[in-house]
């Protein structure tokens, strides 16, 4: 890949993340250097409690950074207004949506909020974008269903569709594969890969599906106790980064297959 | 959002029902007035003192009270993402009750200083408004420091408990006569307002409605939850502030002018959601307005006990009529749509 010509959407400069209270700083990870380029699928992996969600929350400006900077289109994220941010970055969160009484169409339409007028009327262009988003995730047939009628996999697709309708260069998903069966985990991640190829958006997701991420991602961010590394999956395997992910007493990483095996 | 057109017929039907209940409400009462006279005095052909100075302001008050409480209930249920929320969860009615209790009951305890003012009904209106305003102010100060909307809900309930306790203490030391006066205020009443009072009521009510209309987009965004709403560019603090102000303007003035009217604020949004199968506030807001107005007019017509001289407390009627309706709707659909 000719990276020099590519456009950097999001970049961190010696970023430290964690929680601040009046007296203490509890640092979760520091000196994070990552670059997300246009048209890349990036997987964020790490053990439970290592700080994946904290990193995502900091990157999405839901939580203040400790030091360093997050640059979105070369501008510090804090200098974006909520509305500007909403036109650059859309989210799929782990928290359930507040009202499951929304129909899929209504849910996806809400993705157009940053562009609609004061009362939220959809223009022809908005309707086109909504229908396009529904088509991309193949859920046109579900559009009149209520969210409480959907399976977990269908709901996840609807939420991804909503993020697509928001028409942003960057989509960030927090653990989009939790609660899904093996098939649907693969389905959702494969869908993300397809979306990156078709729409040239940048998609960053956190996941525990390391095997799948290795096979599908252009780049991976691996969070371990010591540091945060980001590189292509192949390079990460040869560098032996995945071995450092978990304690070695139970499972170990098999370089040949690119997956974890239970120790015998 | 779609399907706005499919609701047009339902809206048309509701508007016709509202007009019908309005006329019925004005035609009924302890004094029987022929329909011709009723209609004539409404369009200004003939004069009828009872219609023009008693029944008409009462019917208009019923419309303002029903629609206002319904809309503030809808706002609270969406803001707090809680189907049990109503306009009074923030302690607004408790604040009003405290204000009124201090004036009525306090006049007995603290001597005749207050008693002199009691001749004016306005004292009660002012006391109720001031009470709900102060409780609201406390909640706004707290909510500026607290991010979690649920915490604000709990704090509102706590304020409610505190004011209720103060009212109990005041009641304990009050004479039976004053206590009765306070209890009568608690029954709620639609019929005591003069045209001037209805006019002032309407002006404050309109501000509340205007703010509610301005909140429509924010309310729809909040259906996704606060983090999603923020990621869609919504200024959460500002929207929350406007929604709380709108609710307190509506619920505060209604309590001040008509007493603490139970149930309507909680029930109307649920009844509306059963008929209008949508979460879009652009449709729900006018629908709640119509349902609130219609149901309040019906409740008031029943409270008049047609052909008799009795007037039952409106507060009892709203619950007696409203609660079974909600239970029936929920049992029939087997689902709480929220």
UniProtKB/TrEMBL annotation, chain A:
InterPro entries: AAA+_ATPase (IPR003593), ABC_transporter-like_ATP-bd (IPR003439), P-loop_NTPase (IPR027417), Siderophore_ABC-ATPase (IPR051535). One of its GO terms (cellular component) is plasma membrane. Residues 10-250 form the ABC transporter domain. The keyword Iron applies. It is a peripheral membrane protein. PROSITE patterns: ABC_TRANSPORTER_2 (PS50893). The keyword Lipid metabolism does not apply. Keywords: ATP-binding, Cell membrane, Ion transport, Iron, Iron transport, Membrane, Nucleotide-binding, Transport. GO terms for biological process: iron ion transport. This is ABC transporter ATP-binding protein.
From TrEMBL, chain B:
The chain crosses the membrane at residues 12-35, 55-76, 88-118, 124-144, 151-173, 198-220, 241-271, 283-303, 310-331. The keyword Membrane applies. Keywords: Cell membrane, Membrane, Transmembrane, Transmembrane helix, Transport. Its main location: membrane. It holds the Pfam family FecCD. Signal peptide: none annotated. GO terms for cellular component: plasma membrane. It is found in: Cell membrane. It is a multi-pass membrane protein. One of its GO terms (molecular function) is transmembrane transporter activity. SUPFAM superfamilies: ABC transporter involved in vitamin B12 uptake, BtuC. GO terms for biological process: siderophore-iron import into cell. Belongs to the binding-protein-dependent transport system permease family. FecCD subfamily. This is Iron ABC transporter permease. It comes from Formosa maritima.
């Amino acid at each position: 890949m000719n990276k020099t010509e590519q456009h950097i959407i999001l970049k961190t400069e010696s970023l430290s993340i964690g929680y601040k209270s009046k007296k203490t700083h509890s640092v979760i990870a520091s000196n994070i250097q990552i670059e997300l380029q246009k048209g890349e699928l990036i997987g964020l992996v790490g053990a439970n409690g290592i700080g994946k969600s904290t990193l995502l929350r900091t990157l999405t400006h839901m939580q203040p950074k400790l030091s360093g900077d997050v640059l979105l289109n070369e501008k510090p994220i804090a200098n974006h207004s909520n509305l500007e941010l909403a036109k650059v970055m859309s989210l799929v969160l782990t928290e359930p949506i507040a009202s499951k009484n929304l129909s899929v169409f209504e849910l996806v339409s809400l993705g157009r909020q940053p562009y609609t007028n004061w009362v939220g009327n959809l223009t022809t262009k908005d309707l086109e974008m909504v229908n396009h988003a529904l088509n991309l995730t193949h859920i046109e047939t579900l559009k009149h269903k209520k969210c409480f009628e959907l399976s977990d996999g269908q709901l996840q697709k609807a939420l991804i569709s909503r993020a697509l309708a928001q028409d942003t260069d960057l989509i960030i998903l927090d653990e989009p594969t939790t609660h899904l069966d093996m098939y649907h985990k693969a389905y959702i991640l494969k869908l993300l890969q397809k979306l990156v190829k078709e729409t040239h958006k940048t998609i960053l997701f956190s996941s525990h599906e390391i095997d799948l991420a290795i096979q599908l991602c252009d780049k991976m961010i691996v969070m371990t106790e010591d540091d945060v590394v980001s590189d292509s999956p192949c390079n990460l395997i040869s560098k032996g980064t995945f071995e450092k992910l978990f304690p070695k007493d139970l499972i170990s990483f098999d370089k040949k297959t690119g997956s974890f095996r239970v120790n015998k | 959002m779609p399907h706005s057109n499919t609701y047009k017929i339902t809206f048309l039907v509701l508007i016709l029902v509202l007009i019908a209940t309005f006329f019925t409400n004005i035609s009924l009462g302890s004094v029987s007035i022929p329909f011709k006279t009723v209609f004539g005095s409404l369009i200004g052909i003939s004069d009828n003192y009872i219609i023009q100075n008693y029944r008409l302001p009462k019917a208009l008050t019923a419309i303002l009270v029903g629609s206002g409480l319904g809309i503030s209930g809808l706002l609270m249920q969406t803001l707090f993402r809680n189907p049990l929320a109503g306009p009074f969860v923030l302690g607004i009615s408790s604040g009003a009750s405290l204000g009124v209790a201090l004036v009525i009951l306090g006049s007995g305890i603290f001597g005749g200083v207050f008693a002199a003012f009691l001749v004016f009904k306005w004292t009660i209106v002012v006391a109720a408004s001031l009470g709900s305003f102060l409780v609201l102010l406390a909640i706004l100060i707290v909510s500026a420091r607290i991010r979690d909307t649920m915490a604000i809900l709990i704090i509102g309930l706590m304020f409610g408990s505190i004011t209720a306790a103060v009212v109990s203490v005041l009641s304990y030391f009050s004479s039976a006569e004053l206590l009765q006066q306070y209890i009568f205020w608690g029954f709620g009443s639609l019929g005591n307002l003069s045209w001037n009072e209805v006019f002032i009521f309407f002006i404050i009510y309109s501000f509340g409605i205007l703010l509610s209309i301005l909140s429509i987009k924010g309310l729809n965004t909040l259906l996704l939850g606060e983090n999603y709403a923020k990621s869609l560019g919504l200024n959460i603090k500002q929207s929350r502030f406007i929604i709380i102000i709108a609710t307190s303007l509506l619920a505060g003035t209604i309590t001040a002018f008509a007493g603490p009217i139970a149930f309507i604020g909680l029930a109307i949004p649920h009844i509306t959601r059963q008929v209008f199968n949508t979460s879009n506030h652009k449709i729900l807001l006018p629908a709640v307005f119509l349902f609130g107005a219609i149901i309040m007019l019906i409740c008031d017509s029943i409270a008049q006990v047609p052909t008799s001289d009795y007037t039952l407390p409106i507060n009892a009627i709203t619950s007696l009529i409203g609660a079974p309706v909600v239970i029936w709707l929920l049992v029939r659909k087997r689902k709480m749509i929220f």
